[in-house]
Amino acid sequence: MTVTYKKLWHLLLDKNMKKKDLQVAAKLTSYAMNKLSRNDAVTTDVLAKICRSLECTVDDIMEVLPETETK
How many domains does the chain have? Predict the structure, then answer.
C-alpha cells in the first residue's frame, strides 16, 4: 500500500504550523515524524493523535494511492 501525506503538509501550511509544532501538539515521536516525512505507513494511533490535535479527519491528512501493476 502506498500512502501520501501531502494533504497533511498543506493543512499545516494553512494553519501556519511547522512540522515541529505538529510533533509537539500531537505528542509524536521524532521516529513517527520521520516516517510521515518519508510517506511511510504509520499506526492508526499516530493518525488519531494528528487528527485530534488538528481537529480534522484522516481523509484530511492522507491519501492512499492506487497500486500500479507491473507486468
Answer: 1
